[in-house]
Amino acid sequence: MAQQDTSHMTSRVEGWLEREVFQPMEDFEDPKQEWRRLFSELFGTFFLVLVAAGGGMMGQAFPGTISRTAAVVAPGLMVMAIILFMGKVSGAHLNPAVSIAFALRRDFPWPRVPGYIVVQLAGAALAAWFLQSVIHVSATYGSNYPAAGYSSFDAFLMESVLTLGLVSVILGTASGAQSIGVFGAIGVGAYIALAGLWGSPISGTSMNPARTFGPDLVGAEFKDYWVYVAGPLFGALLAVGAAFVLRGRGGGQAGSGAAQGDLQTEAKSPDKR
Question: Between 3.30.390.50, 1.10.443.10, 3.40.50.720, 1.20.1080.10, what CATH number should domain 32-259 receive?
Answer without folding.
Answer: 1.20.1080.10
